[in-house]
From TrEMBL:
Membrane topology: Peripheral membrane protein
Protein's name according to its UniProt entry: UDP-N-acetylglucosamine--N-acetylmuramyl-(pentapeptide) pyrophosphoryl-undecaprenol N-acetylglucosamine transferase
EC number annotated for this UniProt entry: 2.4.1.227
Pfam families: Glyco_tran_28_C, Glyco_transf_28
Gene3D superfamilies: Glycogen Phosphorylase B
Single GO molecular function: glycosyltransferase activity
Lineage, top ranks: Bacteria, Pseudomonadati, Pseudomonadota, Alphaproteobacteria, Acetobacterales
Catalytic activity: di-trans,octa-cis-undecaprenyl diphospho-N-acetyl-alpha-D-muramoyl-L-alanyl-D-glutamyl-meso-2,6-diaminopimeloyl-D-alanyl-D-alanine + UDP-N-acetyl-alpha-D-glucosamine = di-trans,octa-cis-undecaprenyl diphospho-[N-acetyl-alpha-D-glucosaminyl-(1->4)]-N-acetyl-alpha-D-muramoyl-L-alanyl-D-glutamyl-meso-2,6-diaminopimeloyl-D-alanyl-D-alanine + UDP + H(+)
CDD domains with a match to the protein in the record: GT28_MurG (cd03785)
Organism name: Acetobacter fallax
Amino acid sequence: MEGGGMSGVVTKSAGPVVIAAGGTGGHFFPAEALADALVARGYRVALMTDARAGKRTSGVFATADQFVLPGAGVAGRGPVRALKGGLALLSGARQARAIMAKIRPSAVVGFGGYPSVPPLLGARLLSRAGRPAIVLHEGNAVLGKANAFLARFADGIATSFAKVAGLPSGARVRLTGMPVRPAIAALAGEGYVAPKADGKDGTPTDGIRLLVWGGSLGARVFSDVVPEALSLLPLTIRERVSVTQQVRAEDLERVRTAYATYGIAARLEPFFSNVASLMREAHLVIGRAGGSSVAELEVAGRPSVLVPFPMAASDEQTANARALEGVGAAWLIRQEAFTADALSALLAMLFTDVGTLAAAAGAGAALARPDAAERLADLVEASLSRGSLH
């Protein structure tokens, strides 16, 4: 873009694009992907985050200006903790406003959750003449509470799902998809190869590779249920299954013992850094239904069994899972119904009718937007010229 000043068009030599993200990797992966896309276009970026995430020492933000702001969530807390959280957010907003008055950003992009509130509220508190464009990214099929509060200030809202509940009427909304890690984006279009099923009854005759992930720390419910469910499978299926599973460190030994007792090959780790290669190898994925996880399943084109996190503030993971289930790309099981018997029955069906797995993989891949980071960068650029700056 060229020009600037009173014309309302922002040059790439103007103030940085501030990216507001914090918390777990699910918020940081898309933030880093957008930052990479903007830097490639010649923009400068800065990061505003929370103490829980801290400063980044690798990736695109390592060489960018970083600001750690106070803040805390308020949803689902008692009145005293909610009050303290609200005061921390206001303190963070005041700090963010003071910082932005100095660095004069051209835009502020928030990725949801309470870490995005202080930077975007701070931007709104600036005088109109110095106010940057404000862009929100909503990663779930339900508008999060933080984004619902901030949406009234936004010059543009990017969504990961075609239908998002709770969007305000009259908002400038664009479907961009969820930016994913470059290694995952590289899987797009590779296709899916189901386990071979040469037997007359459709039973696979080669290995079945199962990937189980459960968020950044692993979900205990998967450690409790999945080994027992696999043990209930017919021997002709069970002997062909190998499992790669994310397990909490404190649960490793008991889960490893369970798989060894059942004679099931298993690789267990608290954290996997090579998620892309594991996704490429997997025939089926079992996990939560966070926005980033769902997007990665779509881009990789992998069928899944999704167990939404039951404590999510707006039950957004259930809405995410239903979006995939509705097109035949996944099977949704609520956590209260996620038992060894129920999972074993589903897996027995899937592993004896591998055509169903292949169809689900194709349905998921049809939803994929591997260029989501570029689409979101396009929206940020468009907001620079039409946003509050002019």
